[in-house]
Every structure is written in structure tokens, then in C-alpha cells.
Amino acid sequence: MSAAEGPLVVGVDSSTQSTKALVVDASTGRVVASGQAPHTVSSGAGRESDPRQWWDALCEALRQCGEPAREAAAVSIGGQQHGLVTLDAQGDPVRPALLWNDVRSAPQVRRLVAELGGPKAWAERTGSVPGTSFTVTKWAWLAENEPEAVRATAAVRLPHDYLTERLTGQGTTDRGDASGTGWWASGTEGYDEEVLAHVGLDPALLPRVVRPGEVAGTVRDAHDLPFAKGTLVAPGTGDNAAAALGLGLRPGTPVLSLGTSGTVYAVSKHRPADPTGTVAGFADAHGDWLPLACTLNCTQAVDRVAALLGLDREAVEPGTSVTLLPYLDGERTPALPHASGLLHGLRHDTTGGQLLQAAYDGAVHSLLGALDLVLDADADPSAPLLLIGGGARGTAWQQTVRRLSGRAVQVPEAKELVALGAAAQAAGLLTGEDPAAVARRWDTTRGPVLEAVERDEETLARISGVLSDAAPLLEREPGGR
Question: CA separation (Å) from 374 to 163, 273, 294, 389?
Fold first, then answer.
């Protein structure tokens, strides 16, 4: 392996199920070393993880990177959004973190939205109408169900904040991740004191919001990682904002990410405020905005259907008139937190492969339904849809997105875009560049383009019809009639 041309930086992706670390040459974007270690997530009604697992996984991932990690001049953490991390006075977790896909706060969502002016007021205030993913609703759930945990809490953090603080010893976050809490006001770009007072959260418990391009701190003495004391630590950000940096996105370019969750987003110069709640009005990590729509059920749900059928995930068959709404974990887009999966149109001659294709169709339908709302009116409708995430290299996913979107689809060759975006942020500290410009210099979107095909309007209309007709079933709460 040839020597690096420039300084080395480390980018981290602490996701729902694992932590990945990349050591990257800041001059060329070449990945010099990488490592990965898993986390565990609870099953059942809640979705929780012990934050200390994330630190242990980070240590292991960097150990796998070997000597190049020791030479890094800067590091940045990208992490799963929304998770509620509660720490005691010693900095230890009070309880496991409530993750983004924990939907137990649905009653608190309804109450908070109603008590603070309704959906339109929330969208104007914070950029988003909070759903069960948003941290403010998780804090409200905790206060109602585990008041002793709230009393023991001396600091409230997001997942990426927790790891950054363990590196630097300072409580910091960034505007991108803060914008997914529900207590950060997008209009003023600061914490919203009225929201915090309403949910009984002292702003002194929250981290300082570090500006784009600002150094969050330096690596302190007491740590288990290979970094030298004084190594620069970037602000870090949430996973979607990090991936946007990793792609070097310019305003108006659409992205569809296929992971445990599915997301569609684009960078915008305009502050979003969708009163329907379909589009979350997130900030990005370098001063613009990142309107985004997210589904809870994406690759994991489709893989579960494949497993139930005993099929390989690529074993799809065409020609189906069956509809499968794969809402196995409830759903965020559309907002159906109590929903379960629904199958309609099953016939004697329906094959397993057709059922599997229906699961793909149902998952992609939810994402594409929000795409037009995410994009600004001046976005180029002919621009290729960038397909990223764990499912992006699957042929069945590619062809389903292509057929149901009617757009050209580009699949970047670069892997681990969240970690690459974090690495670009770290590199920007050293070079003074916009991290998105760093990623463009690294040519991270290079990859094949699949030409557009005629959009499958018949399938889209069929799924929309079933979704509409089934609304009473999908909206019914557990135990309801």
C-alpha cells in the first residue's frame, strides 16, 4: 500500500447495529484502513441500546484499523439520529438509550403536538412536526414512565454527542443532529426554551451546539483509543447529514437511502416547514437545510419477508397484483406508529417471488411518495436519483426504485458514506474547506447510472388504494376495536 499523500483523518459511523471506522487520506479520499464492530438492540415494544456498547465498538473498530489510526490528525463522529442518551453526574448512562425506532412515545407525540399549537406551529417553530422518532417525545415518555430516571439525569445527549464527549470531555453537538430533537428551533438556530420548559428539561443539561467548521475539542488523555492527545475532534453530526456531506451534495440533488430505515432527502437553501409532518425540516452540517422523509421499514422488513418465505432476497418474480405493506415496526411515513404488516390480493397462483416483490414495492412506495415534497420547485426533475445505503447494491432494490420512480438511478461506488462524510468533516478542519467540497474533490458519487424507464403508475395506484382503504386497520391502536 502506497504512503498517504496528505494527512490522515478518521470518520466514524455509529449506526443502529454497528460502528464503522475509516482512516482516510485527506488529500485523495483513499480509504487507508477500516474496522467494524457490532452493537445489540433490544427487541419487543422498545428499541434500546447501552451507549457503552457504542464506545466499546468504536475502540474495537479502531483497533482493527491498526497503525494508520494512530497517525490521524483529526476525527469526526457520525451517528444514528434522535436517540435519547441520559447520563448521570459521573457521565455514566442512567439507562439504555431510547433509539430512533422506538415507537412507544406515540401517545406523547399526540399530546405534545396538541399542547404546543398543533402541527403548523411545530413546523414553523422547529422545522418539523415531531413523530415518535424525535428525541423530545422520548424524553416526555421517560418523564411519564420512568420519573426516577429523569431525576437521576445530569446530562442529555444524542448518540453522536455521547461518543464525541467521551473523546473530548466536553458536551457538544451540531446543528444537523440537534435539528432532529424537537427542542432546537430552526428559525433561531438555538434551543427552544418554551418547548424545554413544557417537557421539564433544563437547558443546562443539553450540549453546546458547535458551529460548522468549528473544532469541537481535542482528544483528552483519559481514553482507550489510538489517537494522540490533542488530535482535533470535529463537531460530528447525524447519520443522514453525514451521508449528505459524504456525497458532496449540491442543492436539489435527490438521495434515496436504503438501510434499516429508508430515507429520501436533498440539500436545500430554504428552511423547510412542512405542516403535514411528512418532511422533517432538518438542518444539514454545513449551514444549509436537509428536508428529509424517513420510513421505519426498509431493508430489514424486506429481508424478514424473504426469510419467512425461505427465499434469497433477490428471488423476486414479476407479474404480481398482490399488495404488501411491510409496516413490521409500525411506520413513520406514513405516520402509522401502531400499524403492522398488511397483505392484500393473495391468490392460489401467487408465488413466493411475487410476494417478495410486493414487499419491495411497498417499501419503495412509501419513500417515493415523499420525494416530491422533499425537493424544491427549482430542482432538476431529470437529475439521477442517488441510491445509497446497504440495499443500494441489490439488483431487486435498484430495479424496484427505477421502475416505481421513473427516474435515472445512480449508484455511487463509494461505500460507508456516513463515515466518509464524517471523514470529510474532519478533513475540513485541517484544510479550511467546506466538507462537501472535500467530498466532491474525492469524487464520492462516481458510479454507474441506470437509465430511466417508464414509471409503473399501475402499481403505485394499486398500493395507494390499498393504503387508503386499509386506514382504519392501520391506525387502530393495540387492543382497539
Answer: 30, 11, 11, 18
